[in-house]
# Entry
Amino acid sequence: MPQPSRLNAEVQGWGRKLLDLFFPARCVNCRQTNGALCPLCYAAIERILTPTCPRCGHPLRDARASCVECRTHPLSISRIQSVAWHDGVLRQAIHALKYNRRRDVAEPLAELVAEGISNSAAPFDFITSVPLHPLREQERGYNQAELLAERAARLRGLNYQRALKRTRATADQIGLNGVARRANVANAFEAEPARVADRVVLVIDDVSTTGATLDACAVALFQAGARAVYGLTLARPRVH
Ligand SMILES: [Zn+2]
Ligand SMILES: [Zn+2]
# Structure
């Protein structure tokens, strides 16, 4: 007998398929045209082209060695880069992917992640993603970071592996400051030594604000023997 939540998810899944048949999904932003994200809205997503901290990816007024935060609290991760600003269309699209069950929007968003992979000079052995706690993943039906990472890896013909596990549930990072974010995700992840020992890993997430979550993943990967860890996120807020 399936668990009530799983049964519920299945019924919702079938309901959604029927709805899609009669009412094709509309653009998550303008809601005008069919398709997850129409070409016009996709084109409005603003790439990060201004100087950023070479370590954590924080936007800087002018290019310097690293940001103040990295000088006072250096990260374990080798580098974090982000593709586009977390506002406007992209903010709307990520919100739909995470909270409105718009799994279909992962497809166009993964193209942006693939673009970020191509632009990143970091050499790596495989791509992985920030895991959700199993309960959160069951509730959502998928892990949005994994959808993005898997599809982006496929677009670039690269290797994707599930190498990380979230060992405890953590509170949402929204509204927490840098120190609280680091404490919130500290020791929340575990990596499989068999997969990561002596490998260079690229970890994908949807949004990074302070880099605390990616850094906690990097710590787990280093504990499991990884040689180097890079981070790439689809989006980053302009300020934090
Ligand atoms: Zn649109
Ligand atoms: Zn920095």
In short: The pocket of zinc ion (ligand 1) is lined by residues 27, 29-30, 32-33, 38, 40-41 (CB under 6 Å). Residues 45-236 form a domain with the Rossmann fold fold (CATH 3.40.50).
